[in-house]
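Notes to self, L-fucose dehydrogenase:
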Amino acid sequence: MTTRRQFLSTLASSAGVLATSPAFTHAAQAAAPAVRAGTLPRNASETTGRHYRPRHRFGLGGVPLAGAFKPTPNADAQGALAAAWAGGVRYFDTSPWYGIGRSERRMGQFLSEQKRDEYILSTKVGRLLKAGNPPDSKVWPEPPPFHRVYDYTADGVRRSIEDSLQRLGVERIDMVFIHDLSPDNRDMGERWTEYFDIALKGAMPELIRMREEGLIKAWGLGVNAIEPALRILKESDPDIFLSATQYTLVRHEDSLNRLQPACAERGVSIVVGSPLNVGFLAGVERIDYLGTITDDLRNRRARLDAIARRHGIDLRTAALQFASAPQTVSAVLVGARTARQIQEDIASMQVKIPADFWAELKKEKLIAEHAPVPA
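result:
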């Protein structure tokens, strides 16, 4: 499988110049109306109807920074944040759950030194952190000495946001996502609807009040499944969703056929999280967070990679740009644990992918015929 590093090395002589090298062709505009500032795409407007839409279409997520699946030294995390900023990234997403508080502390270490009006920040609610008894988790090895307590009440939301402000060292958060209120949350399973009902009476109206008070700009769900987002569209008034692992080169039809039309009807936009399926489309033998890689998925990845190589592009680059193409998508989040990784991601957004590549993927039925692609 062609590595992204091999692909990008043909375009720049070193990682330090990846983000700004004139050798890169600007990426085509996504289907959503966008204007450009520097090298990364922006949305033309901060609203979709009456709902907030982040102006930056490309952001850095805080999962790898916090040491997901293997420890990340803080020096590497700070290097990734600094490289992201130098490359023009101005949207940052985190959560109390990422690294059991570590992601917010590390992001705050960097962002608290920047001018607050210059970047967009989102975090999550739904888990409060308490001292002691850290979880035994495959996702979070070597966790800090805290454990989570689920709380989707109104008071729990206020407490969670205040705790996040303290860990981040900032005075405000732009977007708040109710986190992992979903059947794929193994702590909940089929009981996720019980937690949802609590949030429907507590967290959701409280976030609407906070939006009306001007304390936040937007709220929604941050989940790895479609059903909770479809339900909340019917029962509450969200502005935006963080939909992770659901709109990628190997999994997108459910989002394309159900979630995106429902969001468009309400003027709600989607932040796509994990466009690489937690590393699977980068060649890592892992899919999603604790998912199972089937033979069919491996075969699809191999076919996608072979076509990408024939067209002289990198599969990870194609995956990032594919995720950004739909009109309902307002931003794409990538994860990085080193400076080089985020520099390569930034470079990927500037590559011009030939139209023939996308046409071949549709001809081979590797992506949906009606899936939007970069122009």
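- Residues 7-37 have pLDDT under 50 and may be disordered.
- The chain has one domain: 4-363.
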